[in-house]
């Protein structure tokens, strides 16, 4: 295994950056961790708040079993230890959006123990650029509310809709050594969560965010003092925050200063971090077991049910695409990087195989190349996405089957795709309406080839004298003369026969 070598070149020599991420992922559930309140994104402020969420006196938490199930499934997906005995603790601190005055979390006995995630640092070299990032733990906790400072000139408003929402805090080991590694790790973790269905991974909506721990040291020396940059909400911003914070720490150290263990905030507008507050340690929060909640005990049957419910995960799917479908490592990686893309591709594969009366493995390369090169390229030009596309897997399969059967050529297929995106019509209807059926009549093609060769006698002579690259010229001229409708295979066969 190889990893990228990332160094900061300071005035006094090289520095190494050490990175760990604490990712807060909102658990997919219709209700909160300890109450029945809804969790829909974008609801009116304070419209999804129960008496428990608002910390009214005498209210007791009731654990949401689905949240535990999803956290266990996530742990199993990263090959982590599942702790059958775990406990909830109170993390005590005061903040205006935390009505209880404490957060129910897990410190000493988390639900999920050590696991790992394998990342790929170079998509074009997936086998030679892998690195394993250790996971220290996943614990389950409740979210706080939200302060809104832009609603009034002198006051801050409090929205408790997020208060009590279930979070998985996924804590990595400090195994990352570059912004690129951290970006790859966060992207891979989000992919796994989306495959499992335990979190939607929508960082722009706050359902997944990262606290970024950064320190620097001379290569080979002990770990330096770290800072924590809170609530960074995109992969790109995480990478920017690391780059800026590492460089800032190097500048401080080289100027003779010391790094202060503190919490910082990232400013997306400037790409920089700024101090927020001094960093607390665990004892500052006065953790103690929550007296309102019994320890959580799981049995073997529950864990096995969680394991059985897991889908095919991205690494296994990528390996299957390579070994069973014969796809390139790059294409397999692209198609499995997002669960919706993988599902779209598999539906496309099924439709193409059915329409063309072939086995999926026979049409896999054609389908993969078309989806990645043609459809993705066309959607990118339109500023659209696969989810927004009017071309469904069924319509894509219909188009590819027409190519596979020889009804239309590859070049005509590109024209048809453009019209499909414009109109939303199916491929067969467009081909029939536009008169785009491929010409396979050897007599008609031969007559056109004869005309091309007669009009280019000089080039025919050059070809016969050894300038074989001119063969492509004759193919192109023939296809052009037949408006792209000639069967390329027939064209090639006739030209080879006539040119000798």
UniProtKB/TrEMBL annotation:
Segments traversing the membrane: none
EC number in record: 6.3.5.-
A biological process term (GO) from this entry: translation
Catalytic activity reported: L-glutamyl-tRNA(Gln) + L-glutamine + ATP + H2O = L-glutaminyl-tRNA(Gln) + L-glutamate + ADP + phosphate + H(+); L-aspartyl-tRNA(Asn) + L-glutamine + ATP + H2O = L-asparaginyl-tRNA(Asn) + L-glutamate + ADP + phosphate + 2 H(+)
Molecular functions per Gene Ontology: ATP binding; glutaminyl-tRNA synthase (glutamine-hydrolyzing) activity
One Pfam entry name: GatB_Yqey
Alphabetical list of InterPro entries matching this protein: Asn/Gln-tRNA_amidoTrfase_suB/E, Asn/Gln-tRNA_Trfase_suB/E_cat, Asn/Gln_amidotransferase, Asn/Gln_tRNA_amidoTrase-B-like, GatB, GatB_C_1, GatB_Yqey_C_2, Gln-tRNA_amidoTrfase_suB_CS
Domain Asn/Gln amidotransferase: 343-499
Entry keywords, A to Z: ATP-binding, Ligase, Nucleotide-binding, Protein biosynthesis
Top-level taxon of origin: Bacteria
Protein family according to the UniProt entry: Belongs to the GatB/GatE family. GatB subfamily.
Assembly information from the UniProt record: Heterotrimer of A, B and C subunits.
Function: Allows the formation of correctly charged Asn-tRNA(Asn) or Gln-tRNA(Gln) through the transamidation of misacylated Asp-tRNA(Asn) or Glu-tRNA(Gln) in organisms which lack either or both of asparaginyl-tRNA or glutaminyl-tRNA synthetases. The reaction takes place in the presence of glutamine and ATP through an activated phospho-Asp-tRNA(Asn) or phospho-Glu-tRNA(Gln).
NCBIfam families tied to this protein: gatB (TIGR00133), PRK05477.1-2 (NF004012), PRK05477.1-4 (NF004014), PRK05477.1-5 (NF004015)
Name of the protein in its database record: Aspartyl/glutamyl-tRNA(Asn/Gln) amidotransferase subunit B
């Amino acid at each position: 295994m190889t990893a990228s070598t990332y160094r900061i070149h300071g005035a006094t020599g090289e520095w190494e950056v050490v990175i760990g991420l604490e990712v807060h992922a909102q658990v997919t559930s219709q209700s909160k961790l300890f109450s029945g309140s809804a969790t829909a994104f974008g609801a009116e402020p304070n419209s999804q708040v129960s008496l428990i969420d608002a910390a009214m006196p005498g209210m007791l938490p009731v654990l949401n079993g689905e949240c535990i199930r999803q956290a266990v499934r996530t742990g199993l997906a990263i090959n982590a230890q599942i702790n059958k005995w775990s406990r909830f603790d109170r993390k005590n601190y005061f903040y205006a959006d935390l009505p209880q005055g404490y957060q129910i979390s897990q410190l000493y006995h988390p639900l999920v123990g050590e696991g790992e995630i394998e990342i790929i640092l170079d998509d074009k070299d997936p086998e030679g650029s892998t690195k394993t990032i250790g996971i220290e733990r996943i614990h389950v906790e409740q979210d706080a509310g939200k302060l809104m400072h832009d609603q009034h000139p002198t006051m801050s408003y409090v929205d408790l809709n997020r208060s009590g929402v279930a979070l998985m805090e996924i804590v990595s080991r400090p195994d990352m050594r570059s912004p690129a590694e951290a970006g790859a790790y966060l992207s891979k973790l989000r992919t796994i969560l989306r495959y499992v269905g335990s979190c939607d991974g929508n960082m722009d909506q706050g359902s997944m965010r990262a606290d970024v721990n950064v320190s620097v040291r001379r290569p080979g020396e002990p770990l330096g003092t770290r800072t924590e940059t809170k609530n960074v909400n995109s992969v790109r911003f995480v990478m920017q925050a690391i780059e800026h914070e590492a460089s800032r720490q190097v500048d401080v150290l080289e100027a003779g200063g010391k790094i202060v263990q503190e919490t910082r905030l990232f400013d997306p507008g400037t790409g920089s971090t700024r101090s927020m507050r001094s960093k607390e340690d665990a004892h500052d929060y006065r953790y103690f077991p929550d007296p309102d909640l019994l320890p959580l005990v799981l049995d073997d049957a529950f864990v096995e049910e969680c394991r059985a419910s897991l889908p095919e995960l991205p690494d296994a799917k990528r390996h299957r695409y390579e070994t069973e479908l014969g796809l390139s490592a790059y294409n397999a990686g692209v198609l499995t990087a997002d669960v919706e893309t993988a599902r779209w591709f598999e539906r496309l594969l099924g439709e193409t195989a059915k329409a063309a009366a072939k086995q999926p493995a026979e049409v896999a390369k054609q389908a993969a190349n078309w989806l990645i090169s043609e459809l993705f390229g066309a959607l990118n030009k339109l500023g659209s996405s696969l989810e927004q596309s009017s071309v469904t897997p069924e319509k894509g399969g219909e188009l590819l089957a027409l190519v596979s059967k020889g009804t239309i050529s590859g070049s005509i297929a590109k024209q048809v795709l453009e019209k499909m995106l414009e109109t939303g019509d199916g491929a067969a209807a467009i081909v029939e309406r536009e008169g785009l059926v491929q010409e396979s009549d050897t007599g008609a093609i031969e007559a056109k080839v004869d005309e091309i060769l007669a009009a280019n006698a000089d080039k025919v002579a050059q070809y016969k004298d050894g300038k074989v690259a001119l063969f492509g010229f004759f193919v192109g001229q023939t296809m052009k003369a037949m408006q792209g409708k000639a069967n390329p295979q027939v064209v090639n066969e006739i030209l080879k026969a006539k040119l000798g």
